[in-house]
Amino acid sequence: QIVDRVFSETLFKSHPDLLEVWTNLPPHPLQEKEPLGDRLWIPKFELLQKLTKFEESIGVEFTHIRLLARAFTDRSVGYTNLTLGSNQRLEFLGDTVLQLIASEYLYKYFPEHHEGHLSLLRSSLVNNRTQAVVCDDLGMANYALYNNPKAELKTKDRADLLEAFIGALYVDKGLEYCEVFCQVTLFPRLQDFIMNQDWNDPKSKLQQCCLTLRTMDGGEPDIPVYKVIECKGPTNTRVYTVAVYFRGTRLASAVGHSIQQAEMNAAKKALEISHDLFPQLDHQKRVIAKSMKKQRNPKKRRRSSSTSTTSNSTNTFQPTRPKSPSSYSRNRFRAKSPSRSKDTSNSS
Fold this sequence. Notes:
CATH topology of the largest domain: Ribonuclease iii, N-terminal Endonuclease Domain, Chain A
Radius of gyration: 24 Å
Strand order of the largest sheet: 1-2-3
Subcellular location: Nucleus
Number of domains: 2
CATH class of the largest domain: Mainly Alpha
Main location: nucleus
Protein name: Ribonuclease 3
Number of helices: 17
Family: Belongs to the ribonuclease III family.
Order of helices and strands: HHHHHHHHHHHHEEEHHHHH
Keywords: Differentiation, Endonuclease, Gonadal differentiation, Hydrolase, Magnesium, Manganese, Metal-binding, Nuclease, Nucleus, Repeat, Ribosome biogenesis, RNA-binding
Helix content: 55-70%
CATH architecture of the largest domain: Orthogonal Bundle
């Protein structure tokens, strides 16, 4: 509010009409039509009834459930009276909210890292691959609406769904709910990202490994080469098989619904099975694991003689990936939702 007031007075002090617009933004059109909520429409629309199951699975009840319906509506569906549009604007908003929450989290909990490291960590949290995994964990694709239903959503489509959902959650519930959502579904994965250096996609990582094996003769460095070796199926459901080669030797092959996806899968497989060729990968993991162990040990010693508050902060600094991401995400988000926390404190 303070920042908002400073900006408004600085930018629009001499323009009262613009100042009024800035300080009193109108609600979302769906909220404007039903100021007290639109859940009264649930019995009349099968889609809204279906979405209540998704709400139950994550433990959040939207005041305006039509916002949730819009978050899952692709632009191919077009304008409908139920959603008043597609999820593109919510996706834009959700992307910004996610960037803000991830940036604040990393800034607070990694005080010794410079901005370059923080950017790498943030990219591992908010990239399309990570968002697609969270989308799958929560089963969001089951609720997505397309004019022509797709057999399998691409990584980008699933990431867009998650961003649109975060945008709808922000509009309906506010920033605090979005922060809890990220604390449960995204931040616990960070330790694995650090161990596996997931800020680089598999193709970039494989190329970096190959460049470390360059010769000293000053010639052009050897890089991995990808070749499509098979293509099956009709145009709309085509499956490609791509092999990756290094210095004339095939490292691995993999399939995908696009050439790019098949190349990524082939690179990932090559990294997994070529430990003899790239020993630096295991060395890097050992170094990172040793460094993280050193960071944990002092905290363990302090924790034995400190309060539970210190224990909680240690867990925040060292998030761990759940064994079952899907159940973890849903149950923990239900348990940690701000309204439930308040209810618990009131009852106590």
